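step=encode ok
step=design start
structure_in=
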C-alpha cells in the first residue's frame, strides 16, 4: 500500500513522514513535493508534484492508495490548486484522501476559511473516500515570536482576551498518521485543537516565567499590529493577514474544547509551556 503526502518538504509534511516511518515501511511512503530536491533527505521515495501543473500530479499519484493532501500555502490560489490534485487522485484510482482543512471551516470567520470550505465541497463531490482533518492553530504560529518578544521586552498582538486552543505541529502530524494508518476514519470530520486554551497575555506570562524577565503582552489595534509587523520586515500580505487572524481570535475563532485531537492521537496535546521552552532553547 502506497501512502503519499503532499507538501512533503514543508514543516508539517516532514513531520508526518518522519512519524509515518515509525508505523509503516519506508518503501510504502511517497513524498510529493513541488521541488523534489527539498525532500531528498526524508529517506523515502520522492516524486515531483506541483499543484499548478496537473501533468506532474498524474505521474506523482500513480500506484498511490492513500493520500494526505496538505493544503497549499498560496492563499487565493488554493481552490484551483486543490481541484487539480483531487482530479488527479480520481484518475489515479486513489482509494482514500485525508485533507488538512481549518478548524470549524464551515462557520469560521477567518479569511482562510472560504478556500478550505470550497475544497471540502470539492472533495465531498469527488466520490473519493475522504477524511477531513480540520486543524486548529499551530502553537508555533505564536512561539515563532518568542525570540523577538524577549529581544524587545514585549509580546505584541491583536487577540485581546480571545482564548486560543492551539497545539504543536507535531500533534497535528500524529493525528494525520493515525488517520493514514488505522481504519474507521472514512467520511469523518475531526475538529482538531489543543486540550488547553490560553490568551496571549497568558502566553506572555509563561515567557516571563521561563526567562525570569517581565515580558508583558501588548494588545494593539489590528492596523497598528500590521504596521509593526511590516516595520519588522514581514512581507505583504502577511502583516494584514496575521493581524486579521488575531482580530478573529479575539472573537473566539481559534477556540475549541472538544479534545478530538488528543482522543485521535491517544495522548494529551503538547502543553504551551513545552512549546515555549522549545522556542527558548538554544539553536
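sequence_out=
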Amino acid at each position: 500500500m502506497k501512502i503519499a503526502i503532499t507538501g512533503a518538504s514543508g514543516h508539517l509534511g516532514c513531520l508526518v513522514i518522519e512519524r509515518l516511518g515509525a508505523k509503516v515501511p519506508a518503501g510504502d511512503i511517497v513524498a510529493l513535493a513541488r521541488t523534489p530536491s527539498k525532500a531528498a533527505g526524508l529517506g523515502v521515495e520522492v516524486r515531483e508534484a506541483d499543484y499548478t501543473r496537473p501533468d506532474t500530479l498524474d505521474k506523482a499519484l500513480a500506484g498511490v492508495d492513500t493520500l494526505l493532501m496538505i493544503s497549499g500555502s498560496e492563499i487565493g490560489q488554493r481552490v484551483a490548486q486543490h481541484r487539480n490534485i483531487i482530479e488527479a487522485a480520481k484518475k489515479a484510482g486513489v482509494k482514500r484522501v485525508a485533507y488538512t482543512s481549518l478548524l470549524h471551516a464551515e462557520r469560521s470567520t477567518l479569511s482562510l476559511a472560504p478556500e478550505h470550505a470550497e475544497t471540502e465541497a470539492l472533495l465531498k463531490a469527488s466520490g473519493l473516500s475522504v477524511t477531513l482533518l480540520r486543524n486548529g492553530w499551530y502553537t508555533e504560529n505564536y512561539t515563532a515570536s518568542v525570540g523577538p518578544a524577549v529581544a524587545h521586552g514585549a509580546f505584541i498582538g491583536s487577540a485581546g482576551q480571545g482564548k486560543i486552543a492551539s497545539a504543536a505541529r507535531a500533534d497535528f502530524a500524529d493525528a494525520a498518521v493515525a488517520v493514514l494508518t488505522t481504519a474507521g476514519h472514512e467520511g469523518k470530520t475531526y475538529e482538531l485543537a489543543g486540550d488547553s486554551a490560553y490568551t496571549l497575555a497568558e502566553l506572555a506570562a509563561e515567557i516571563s516565567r521561563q526567562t525570569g524577565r517581565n515580558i508583558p503582552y501588548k494588545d494593539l489595534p489590528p492596523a497598528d499590529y500590521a504596521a509593526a509587523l511590516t516595520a519588522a520586515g514581514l512581507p505583504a500580505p502577511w502583516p494584514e493577514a496575521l493581524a486579521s487572524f488575531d482580530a478573529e481570535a479575539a472573537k473566539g475563532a481559534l477556540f475549541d474544547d472538544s479534545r478530538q485531537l488528543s482522543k485521535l492521537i491517544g495522548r494529551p496535546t503538547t502543553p504551551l509551556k513545552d512549546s515555549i521552552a522549545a522556542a527558548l532553547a538554544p539553536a
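step=design ok
step=annotate ok -> The chain has two domains: 3-135, 137-168+193-256+270-283.
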